Amino acid sequence: MDKNQNTSIQMFADYEGDISTLLESNAPEELPVLATRNMVVFPGVLVPIFIGRKASVSLIRKLSKSEDPICAIFSQKDAEVDAPKQKDLYPMGVYAHLVRVIDMPGSENITAIFQAHGRCRLESITATRPYLKGTATPVSDVVPDVLGEELRAIVEDVRTTTTHLIKSNDDIPNETLMTLKNISNEMMLINFLCTSLPFDPKEKMELLMTDDMEERAIGLLKLENRDIQLQELKNQIRKKTHEDLDEQQREYFLHQQMKNIKEELGGDEKSPEKKELLEKSKNKKWPEEIAKTFAKELDKLDMFNPQSPEYSVQVNYLQQMVALPWNEYTEDNLDIKRAKRVLDHDHYGMEKVKERILEYLAVLQLRGDLKSPILCLYGPPGVGKTSLGKSIAAAMKRKYVRVSLGGLHDESEIRGHRRTYVGAMPGRIIKSIQKAGSSNPVFILDEIDKVTQNAINGDPSSALLEVLDPEQNNAFHDNFLDVDYDLSKVLFIATANDLSTLPAPLLDRMEIIEVPGYVTEEKVEISKRHLVPRELENTGFGKLETKPSFTKATLEKIIEQYTRESGVRQLEKQINKALRKMALMYASDGQLPFEKVQPAQVESLLGKPPFYRDAYQGNEDAGVVTGLAWTSAGGEILFIETSMNKGHGSRLTLTGNLGEVMKESAMIALQYVKAHVDQLGIDYRIFDNWDIHIHVPEGATPKDGPSAGITIATSIASAITQRKVRKNTAMTGEITLRGKVLPVGGIKEKILAAKRAGMTDIVLCKENRKDIDEIPENYRNGLTFHYVENILEVWKIALTDELVDKPLEFVRKNDERIGFLPFNSTSNQN
Question: What's the pLDDT at 68?
């Protein structure tokens, strides 16, 4: 038998009489051998066999021409073997006579009908061509002469059980039931059912090798009862899952059936994805609760069809879980000296930040275990806040990850999406931890002040509260994972340019560290140590033996006249631009244009300078006072100009694009001057006929802040008294209506700006002395600081008794001239 494994087997004629006569066989010792696939023939059965192999067809053709067409039929152990030998055949078979040959239309295949006789044992295969031949010896069946009551009961049970099996199993043709009713001989019935029912060939062979017919009947009954139980199990599953099934539910039902069958048989074949996940999970240091969750979710894979979307979602979830470094930490390097060396090498300045990191390492060294702080570095762009994170990671030998939060508008970007959504994924925090491969990296939250605060997709800044709270982030909950993850060992460093846009609760959870802008001297050092060497490599000059260089004066010129920033980002671009220009000249002439770039050569490389520092303008004019201002580009000197104009009096004009706070400072200064005309030695009636105009040059540039208060008050006093202001003197400080001088910020930048402009004396609030003490001594050399508490002290220092050339003569309505009194005089002169 070749291909057809389900050929129907029928009893074409009922047999009455002694079955032993049918089972007798007078076959020769050597005879043709027919090998069948997936078919076991029992004695006495008339059976059609589909013939497809050439050797088998040759055998049938030979038998059809023989007077005594007898052969032996043996079943193959492995149906895939095409040319079987003795080792490939079961040793037990039957003798059979060829009854009829039916040719298949349009095919070389044929169907042969055999009448099986008694059993035989295969002794040897004597030939394989043109078909199999072998020797066989007969084996008798133990058939009782008279059926006992027990055997009759067994046969009746077989009839009943077979009828039940045929009705419950759609795979058995209904013709078998008709044949069952027509067979009256009990032994023929047993052999017919053993041949025709769809049992496994190995099980059938065990029945064929059973000599006693009663035992064979019992074995048949056991197999039937087992199949009935299996069919009932299928019906139970079908009943449980019976409903209007769509295609996906149908697939699930089939897989559920497979699962139950596997469980009954004791087998459990795992999918490749499940095997991979199990392999990865072996090395995970799961917390107990996470291990239980993972195992539970892994078992759900068996419930889904591998082709269904749910299967892919479940596999993705499990892959995300095993990708996380649960309880995996890198070992910190706690060498304080080494960490300081790394931080100093990579970044110039930033002393407060470096000190805070070294403090953290020191405490960690003492305690051995410590929750990581949440640091927020804020300051102007380009000062190295982001790159500082890499240096900290290198100093501690930790992994480094960075997430840019600029423009983030969806809370799910932080917390992740729930798995019920299509395309769900973990949030950026969890994905970055996966990328880092450890649970204690240095994690940079860049541009945290640029997070969008809206309620359309949730508030991302509120979602960050859990991440950045040391008391909560040991159990951070990502919506996709739906389990807690410990972030307490992560060193979070946030960066921001402006703290005013951050919500107060978020600010409260972070340790704020200011990273101020660089002064010119610091920028020169940064250029020499970092920017110039890096740009030499970027432009290809690093390969040359003779490399171009920049003098200190050249770098200062580039900083002051070609950049206007607190950081060094634009400075780096200008250095790169100069080197690119030199690279073009070198490529054209084959010669380096400048080995050491001098200030005079900068314009040939960078063009005309777009910016100029304000220079001190002297003290020849009344009402012109030098103030100090802080800008995002660093410190600047600022001129306050006041002029007196004939008019109706009591009119104040302010120009120069001033902000509201600066306007208020001007009004406070004027009111204080009016209230203290006696101390200035002037007639209060001046304000009846003269208007005051205050102007701050560079009107296109917005200006605001209270720090120009004492400068404006001194400017008004100088204009009204026509006295000169002390030469090379600058000042900064806020005033009140009582004339009290208040401290201001940005002192370091302002002092350095004054020094660059040639100032020698600085007037500022007494409480700003502590800021002066923090400035390195080499930056303070050549400066004299005057600490004051009220505006009268400012005037004593800043206003001289010398009048300007051609002072104004203030005239009242009756043409009476108003003269000037010496400073601090208590009487008025008309």
Answer: 86
Amino acid identity, position 590? G
493 in Cβ contact with 445 (< 8 Å):
yes
- pLDDT (mean) for 141-149: 79
Cis peptide before 144 (omega within 30 of 0): no
> Could you tell me if 657 and 700 are in contact, meaning their C-beta atoms sit under 8 angstroms apart?
yes
Could you tell me whether strands 723-725 and 799-803 are parallel, antiparallel, or unpaired per DSSP bridges? antiparallel
**DSSP readout, 623-679?**
TEEEEEEEETTEEEEEEEEEEEEESSSS-EEEESSB-HHHHHHHHHHHHHHHHTHHH
In the structure, what pLDDT confidence band is assigned to residue 17 with cuts at 50, 70 and 90? very low
Only one residue has tokens 């008025």, namely 828
d(CA 339, CA 388) in angstroms, rounded, equals: 13
Q: How far is CA 217 from the centre of its chain?
A: 67
User: Tens of pLDDT along 270-299?
Assistant: 678 888 888 888 888 888 888 888 888 888
pLDDT tens-digit series, residues 402-419 = 998 887 878 888 888 888
Q: What is the pLDDT of residues 466-485, one digit of tens each?
A: 888 888 888 888 888 888 89
Write out the E strands in 324-483: 374-378, 400-404, 442-446, 476-477
Say whether 239 is catalytic.
no
Share of the chain above pLDDT 70, in %: 89
Give the active site residue among 439, 707, 715, 718: 707
Residue-by-residue DSSP string for 355-372: HHHHHHHHHHHHHS--PP
Separation between Cα atoms, residue 673 and residue 811, nearest integer Å: 19
One-letter amino acid identity for 795?
W
CA distance 823 to 682: 9
Average pLDDT rounded to a whole number, residues 350-355:
84
Active-site choice (133, 354, 703, 750): 750
Return d(Cα 445, Cα 429) in angstroms, integer: 10
How far is residue 5 from each of residues 8, 169, 195, 512, 677, measured CA to CA in Å? 9, 17, 12, 81, 123
Question: Is position 282 annotated as part of the catalytic site?
Answer: no
| CA max distance for the chain | 164
pLDDT tens-digit series, residues 25-56: 678 888 999 999 999 999 989 999 999 888 99
Q: For strand 484-485 and strand 734-735, is the pairing parallel, antiparallel, or unpaired?
A: unpaired
Burial class (CB in 10 A: 0-12, 13-18, 19+), 186: buried
Round the CA-based radius of gyration of the chain to a whole number and report it: 51
CB contact at 8 A, 142 and 211 = yes
Phi, psi (degrees; rounded to nearest 5) at 811: -120, 135
- How far is 420 from 407, CA to CA, in rounded Å? 26
Cα–Cα distance, 336 to 354 (Å, whole number): 11
Distance of CA 687 to the CA centre of its chain: 69
Summarize the confidence of residues 733-748 as an average pLDDT.
91
What is d(CA 523, CA 780) in angstroms, rounded to the nearest whole number? 17
Q: Which residue reads 């892994």 in tokens?
A: 298
Burial of 400 (0-12, 13-18, 19+ CB in 10 A): middle
What is d(CA 222, CA 161) in angstroms, rounded to the nearest whole number? 10
Q: Do strands 549-550 and 596-597 pair parallel, antiparallel, or not at all (unpaired)? A: parallel
Residues pairing with 445 in the sheet: 403, 494
- Compute the distance between CA of residue 405 and CA of residue 392 in angstroms, rounded to an integer: 20
